[in-house]
């Protein structure tokens, strides 16, 4: 199993103040010992000025996220990452992997309200205003834009969850801009804040989750339903 937990994933987890910076320093100083107990589970021992602390950390099957962790320093007992576990994770995977998936990264998508994307045209209402389903699709497109330069060959992202409020109507001719911002990363699962605005102001907002997948395997599983 290849372990590739990114900085964004570590930052997204509940963690002790300065745990990531302190854990990085411990790792860089070479004060970490690790031992693989079984596939995906490691014993970790890390030393700092307060002495040597240790515990157990296990990873998800894809190696992209921490599954469970415990450290006898006491911090990890409350579910938060401590510097010792962070140092151990870095030692296990040989540092932090390069990744363009970072907290706060944004992307946009733009369209114009025309007859083809009105509520009347798509069947989500009877009025000639920009349709809610089309706003949601634009928000998803913005999220895809955020990830467009982050994916490895053969990968894509699929939407797994979305929760949206459509708070104002946009008439024909209005330009609509959707913006997606990464707020949390849990391995291959990416969470976004999403908004949409027209020339007057915000028309929609919500949250969205996308999962990075292998496109070929994903389609094979989907097509297997037809067998």
What labels would you give this structure?
227 residues; Thiol Ester Dehydrase, Chain A; alpha+beta; five-stranded antiparallel sheet; 6 helices
Task: Explain how this protein is built.
The mean pLDDT is 95. The strands form 2 sheets. Strands 5-7-8-9-6 form a 5-stranded antiparallel β-sheet. It has helices at 7-12, 19-28, 83-93, 119-122, 132-147, 215-223, and strands spanning 32-38, 41-48, 51-59, 66-71, 106-112, 155-166, 175-186, 189-197, 202-214. The longest helix is centred in the middle third of the chain and has 16 residues, at 132-147. The protein has 2 domains: 7-93, no CATH class; 106-226, Thiol Ester Dehydrase, Chain A (Roll). The protein is elongated, with a radius of gyration of 22 Å. The protein contains 6 helices and 9 strands, in the order H-H-E-E-E-E-H-E-H-H-E-E-E-E-H. The chain is 25% helix and 37% strand. The protein is of the alpha+beta class and 227 residues long.
């Amino acid at each position: 199993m290849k372990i590739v937990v990114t900085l964004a994933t570590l930052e997204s987890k509940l963690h002790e103040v300065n745990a990531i910076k302190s854990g990085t320093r411990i790792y860089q100083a070479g004060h970490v010992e690790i031992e693989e107990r079984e596939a995906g589970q490691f014993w970790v021992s890390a030393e700092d000025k307060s002495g040597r602390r240790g515990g157990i950390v296990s990873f998800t099957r894809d190696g992209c996220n921490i599954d469970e962790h415990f450290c006898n320093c006491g911090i990890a007992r409350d579910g938060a990452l401590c510097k010792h576990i962070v140092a151990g994770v870095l030692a296990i995977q040989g540092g932090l992997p390069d990744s363009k998936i970072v907290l706060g990264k944004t992307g946009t998508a733009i369209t114009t309200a025309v007859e083809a994307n009105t509520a009347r045209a798509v069947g989500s209402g009877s009025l000639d205003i920009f349709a809610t389903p089309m706003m949601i699709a634009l928000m998803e497109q913005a999220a895809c834009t955020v990830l467009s330069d982050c994916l490895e060959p053969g990968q894509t992202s699929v939407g797994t969850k979305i929760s949206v409020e459509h708070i104002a109507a946009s008439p024909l001719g209005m330009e609509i801009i959707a913006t997606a911002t990464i707020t949390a990363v849990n391995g291959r699962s990416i969470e976004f804040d999403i908004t949409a605005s027209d020339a007057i102001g915000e028309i929609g907002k919500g949250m969205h989750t996308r999962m990075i997948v292998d496109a070929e395997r994903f389609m094979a599983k989907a097509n297997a339903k037809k067998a």
